[in-house]
Amino acid sequence: MLAYDNTSRPDLTQWSFTETEFNPLAQGKCESIMSLGNGYMGLRSATEEAYIGQTRNLFVNGTFNRFDEFEVTELPNAADVTGMDIYIDGERFSLDTGKTAEYARSLNMRDAELTRSFVWENRAGKRVRFAFRRFVSLGNLHLIGMKAEVTPLDADISLRAVSGIDAQLGNSGSQHFHEGEKRIFDKTVMQLIQTTTESKVDFVIHAAHRFSLDGQPLSIEPKMEIERRKMAMQYGCDIKAGQTFELQKLASVHTSRDAEHATDYDLAVMREQAREEIRLALDAGYDALFERHRQAWAEVWDKYLFRIESKHDFDLLALRFAVYHLVVMTPAHDNRMGIGAKGLSGEGYKGHSFWDTEIFILPFYIYSGPDVARRLLEYRYQGLEGARRKAKENGYEGAMYPWEAAWPTDGEVTPVWGAVDIVTGKQTKIWSGFIEQHITSDIAYAVWHYVQATGDRDFMDRCGYEMILDTAKFWASRLEWNEALARYEINEVIGPDEYKEHVDNNAFTNYMAHFNMELAIQYYELLRREQPELFRRLNEQLDLERAYADWKQKLGRMYLPQPNEDGVIPQDDTYLQKQLIDLTKYKAQQKVGTLFEDYNLDQVNGIQVSKQADIMMLFYLLENRFSAHLKHTNYNYYEPKTLHDSSLSYSTHCILANDFDDSQLAYELFRKAAEIDLGTHMHSSDAGIHSASLGGVWQCVVMGFAGIRMLDGALHLNPKLPQEWERLTFPLYWKSARLEVDITHDALRISTDANEELTLIIRGTATSFVNQLELHF
Ligand code: BGC
């Protein structure tokens, strides 16, 4: 079904992948993994013609709406502009009928273009070649370009195309929009307005067509249709055998959330500007617009210049796939928005941001595009308001970040009810929004990681200190004193391993909270000493002197779970006493979550089984606090009990396996991480791609095989390429210098334009250089 080599376009080897057969029962796969976008909007790659089982999605980042008081806010599914019904001699074209040959649907990631082509034979035996192309512009964030070419191969045909804007869509049945005005200008430009019901975000959607026959412009008198939540144009054309009819559709999306309308907004003005823009786009046409888009992507790939020379072409393809989707999903244009756990490629997780961003995706940006990393952290800075509200509502101080976040001020938006409980038949309650609290220290950690790697003092002064200090205040108020054991604990939480709910002293949560408070103490002292004016302001705002005394008093008495006599750190107070069962069947599962076919969550809570990396994640984030031996012992204990049912798991295990010199296992885990979306499992991506896992793929390569780590403010490199690889090169930003790193099995070369001396720790030895470094192993 999926082919990873492109035999018809050798120039796209390792840049594209192809669906070789249309499978109506597995449409979600390519809709997601071939989705297009530009950070402003994401367009799922549903086919032009309609099929049962397809999901049409167009999401505009940040346009969250709450459908009703019993639901949480989510990204609304905007009107569809891609749908098109084509009739050949009156017969509706569909791959479900007739015969199809030479089918190929490809995502060309180099140019971010979706193509689909095939020869379709209708009931009357007429063969027609179809070729579709589509892009979501990176040159103009509001623009979508589409093209369809139709060539009858052996007989003349009469073609009719019905194409428009369809707002009869929703999010799994929820309708987020009030219907607005619809109008067709000059029998050409369709304009549809829709407004979200609660957040009152206006969407202005435009679409317009142009045609040619064998390259000659064609003017076609349309039939116009306006219905409820829908409008369309109908065009007819007679095409002779061998002639090529081309239909171009240019569409655009503007919303009142767009940054340029943040302060001065007038719907009438936005409509006029957008209408003028689509008119210009129509004049320019697909090819010229695509060229601008292609150049914008060429700049992206110049910036993120990765190379892997491997025995397997798939490896570089997988890294490019990860980077492609990271760019497509990231709102690099607007710091009021985060990254959804499924990017903008599906309804899954409602467009909400989780710790996935800070822990799995942010490192990619810290080291490859620090300006974007800063914007993502600024989004969390704006989220302080919601985080403070959440803390207050729960009886705590400071800032308690929401487990799931949407618009910065929304606060907690985790839904409360989830999948079926196979024992009770009720919906399982999702506790994460209440008690999965490690997100707060994950964000503080990310701020620290960012500033250590970039040295961005300005960000710290404006946002970073406040975030770290206020999150530390939350933790101090969250700690519970255990009189009997004379220690502070954190009880009743969910750690990263979501198969263990309501646990006490999850090691990850406790250590990370401790880290957060420790950091706050250091920054408090630093600010007091070196930036008295900023200190005075923050002290006044956050009552820091009192908070500092509290941190000092509590930190040393905080319980940090220690290894037992076997060297195993308990994941929480009861994990090691839980039942052991034979997990062989689940470890060998083809799809995730099969445990829940046999047990409900209550029962899973009683078993020593983990959904995902938990303590392993702690070892990775705070790696120099634990000895290599301790980490390895724990890896051996927890890995067999970890089902990797979350896509966030493989990459962490890969990096640790690499640290333990198990290069073969590390490579296998890298492949598994890479195959979550790009692999051949036809349903793994139905609800959207897995953004954290894609960040994780980059981390496997750079933090894993290249051994990049930031430790105690220094950059470490400890390269260990897999046997399968010959060479790895990638860009890396360190304290505002851009380095080009080039690794082979026996050498490391680094070059940089920065003229200052740089000191890096290479395989444990401090090594200084200016401009160039070449080391042979
Ligand atoms: C994982 C979380 C993750 C979330 C969103 C869950 O299945 O357990 O760690 O944050 O998905 O990706």
Which cofactors or ions or other ligands sit in this model? Answer: beta-D-glucopyranose
Number of beta strands: 32
Q: What fraction, in percent, of the residue positions are helical?
A: 25-40%
Largest sheet: 11 strands, antiparallel
What's the rounded overall pLDDT mean? 97
Domain Glycoside hydrolase family 65 central catalytic: 320-699
Protein name: Glycoside hydrolase family 65 protein
Active site: 498
Domain Glycoside hydrolase family 65 N-terminal: 18-257
Structure description:
The structure is a single chain. By secondary structure, the protein is α+β, with helices and mostly antiparallel strands. It contains 19 helices and 32 strands. The strands form seven sheets. Strands 1, 2, 8, 9, 10, 11, 13, 14, 15, 16 and 19 form an eleven-stranded antiparallel β-sheet that branches. A hairpin with a 5-residue loop joins strand 14 and strand 15. Helix 4 crosses helix 19 (691-705). The longest helix has 37 residues, at 267-303. The two termini are 43 Å apart. The mean pLDDT is 97. The site of beta-D-glucopyranose has 12 residues, from helix 4.
How does the SSE layout of this entry go?
Layout: E1 2-3, E2 16-19, H1 27-33, E3 36-37, E4 41-43, E5 58-60, E6 84-88, E7 91-92, E8 99-108, E9 113-121, E10 127-136, E11 143-152, E12 157-166, E13 177-185, E14 189-196, E15 202-213, E16 216-218, E17 223-227, E18 230-239, E19 245-255, H2 267-303, E20 307-310, H3 313-329, H4 355-368, H5 370-382, H6 384-393, E21 417-420, E22 427-429, H7 432-435, H8 439-454, H9 457-478, E23 480-482, E24 487-489, H10 507-530, H11 532-542, H12 544-555, H13 584-587, H14 601-605, H15 615-621, H16 628-638, H17 650-659, H18 663-678, H19 691-705, E25 709-711, E26 714-717, E27 725-734, E28 737-744, E29 747-752, E30 758-762, E31 765-769, E32 772-776
Parallel strand pairs: 26-30
Antiparallel strand pairs: 1-2, 2-8, 3-4, 4-5, 6-7, 6-12, 8-9, 9-10, 10-11, 11-19, 12-18, 13-14, 14-15, 15-16, 15-19, 17-18, 20-27, 21-22, 23-24, 25-26, 27-28, 28-29, 29-32, 30-31
Beta-D-glucopyranose is lined by residues 341, 349, 354-356, 496, 498, 611-612, 646, 648, 692.
